[in-house]
Amino acid sequence: MWCPRCDQGEVVKAVIGVTDEIVYICEECDALWVDGTCIKKDNFTDFSAYVEPKGLQGLWSELKDILKL
Ligand SMILES: [Zn+2]
Q1: 5 domain residue, yes or no
Q2: Torsion angle of alpha carbons 28, 33, 34, 40, nearest 10°?
Q3: Is 2 part of any domain?
Q4: Counted domains in the chain
Q5: pTM of the predicted model over 0.70
Q6: pLDDT tens readout for residues 2-20
Q7: How remote is the CA of residue 8 from the centroid of ligand 1, in Å?
Q8: Residues lining ligand 1 (ion), CB within 5 A?
Q9: Residue ranges making up the domain that contains 49
Q10: Quick check: 37 and 45 in contact, CB under 8 A?
């Protein structure tokens, strides 16, 4: 799926390693959508901001099971 936020990268499905939470994230701009939300331009969260309260830094190495949609 093409990213509706930056229009320059692909949105992939991934799992946050420490929480096993399924998210959708753009490979280019790190826009993140939690599972179950509609992937739209106006409702993304930044990957690093989203995982900071979980004690993560927002690195791609903190994700697993990355799957192209
Ligand atoms: Zn993007």
Answers
A1: no
A2: -150
A3: no
A4: 1
A5: yes
A6: 999 999 999 999 999 999 9
A7: 6
A8: 3, 5-6, 9, 26, 28-29, 31
A9: 11-68
A10: no
